[in-house]
Design goal:
Layout lengths: L3 E6 L5 H11 L1 E6 L5 H8 L4 E4 L7 H6 L5 E4 L10 H6 L3 E3 L6 H16 L2 H9 L15 E5 L5 H12 L2 E5 L5 H6 L2 E3 L2 H7 L2 E4 L13 H4 L7 E4 L8 H9 L5 E5 L23 E4 L7 H19 L11
Parallel strand pairs: 1-2, 1-3, 3-4, 4-5, 6-7, 6-9, 7-8, 9-10, 10-11, 11-12
Helix pairs in contact: 5-7
């Protein structure tokens, strides 16, 4: 069996798992730090056929040109864009793959958790009671409310099902594709962004980040939201204009907002976007890009990474490839 050497940054495989992969698939898994400089990455990568990316490193032109043996860049999750430009990868003949859909339900459930945290004022209640302040704050029931979903894809769909089945919500959705069958089953209606932001009690963003979605949600849409409404973004932060969001939250024109992930990760507190974190507790909630991180999900991602590599090494079709 031909042996393929695979670098795994931020490796989640123990010694026994790596040995099993070598014996079963002929893959020598080499672990490395999550935090490699460009020089360190090249040194670790130059003799490898593939890499599983679970770190903060960047696959620049300098890296790719210095590693001619490298064939595959397999991202551990969905958001490969943060580590590699697929067009640059294609220029150097590299295949980029990710693990679509394996964590969709986990992110949908995490989105619901962010809604609970904001609406039920969990952070405010916790901080107040720690300080000896016994103050009850009001919230609204989710039952029969209107939920706006921007992007009805592999995460938006399970989120819509969850909200409809658990809370009998009405779903307004914005998507390039009409989902007629789902509309009948889950009390859904396709609509414009203007109508969605105007009528929704909660707006949840589930779009990919690309040239057409970067900065898409700005004051033009945010200012349409009712004062009691919440904005949830478990997609990429850059889809929402940070300055517009900050001013609307500060002026109490939106009840609250939660992001899973930020404009720069980890957060740069000198940035304009970091102003959002200066808002009062519970006004802007930030989690560290962890919505996918269910224990069940990590196993699914590991399995799909290996499945993708095996198929690509064998010249077979693979659903995770993004450099088609």
């Amino acid at each position: 069996m031909m042996q393929n050497k695979v670098l795994f940054t931020g490796c989640t495989f123990d010694k026994n798992k790596r040995q099993m992969l070598l014996e079963k698939y002929g893959m020598e898994i080499v672990s490395a730090s999550r935090y490699l400089s460009e020089k360190e990455l090249i040194e670790n990568l130059k003799d490898c056929d593939a890499v599983i990316v679970n770190g903060e490193e960047k696959y620049t032109s300098n890296v790719l040109s210095a590693c001619p043996k490298l064939k595959i860049i397999q991202f551990f999750g969905i958001g490969y864009e943060k580590c590699v430009d697929k067009e640059v990868a294609k220029k150097y003949g590299k295949i980029v793959a990710n693990t679509p859909k394996v964590n969709s339900y986990s992110v949908a459930e995490f989105t619901l958790g962010l809604i609970f945290a904001l609406n039920q004022k969990l952070l405010q209640h916790h901080e107040n009671t720690k300080k000896g302040i016994w103050e009850e704050k009001t919230f609204f029931d989710l039952q029969n409310k209107t939920i706006g979903i921007v992007g009805l894809g592999h995460i938006g769909i399970p989120f819509a099902k969850l909200m409809c089945q658990a809370f009998h919500t009405k779903i307004l959705y914005y998507d390039l594709e009409e989902k007629k069958e789902m509309e009948k089953s889950y009390n859904m209606q396709r609509t414009s962004l203007e109508e969605l932001f105007t009528l929704s009690d909660i707006v949840s963003i589930h779009l990919p980040l690309n040239a057409s979605t970067k900065g898409l949600i700005g004051e033009n849409y945010l200012s349409l939201m009712p004062k009691h409404a919440y904005l949830i973004n478990t997609a990429r932060a850059e889809i929402v204009d940070a300055t517009s969001l900050y001013h609307l939250l500060k002026e109490d024109k939106i009840a609250g907002c939660a992001f899973d992930g930020f404009y720069e990760e980890p957060v740069s507190f000198d940035s304009i976007e970091a102003n959002l974190l200066s808002l009062p507790t519970g006004k802007f909630l930030l989690t560290p890009h962890t919505g996918y991180n269910a224990v069940e999900g990590e196993k699914r991602v590991e399995e799909m990474c290996i499945e993708n590599l095996e198929k690509i090494f064998n010249g077979e079709a693979c659903q995770g490839i993004v450099t088609q």
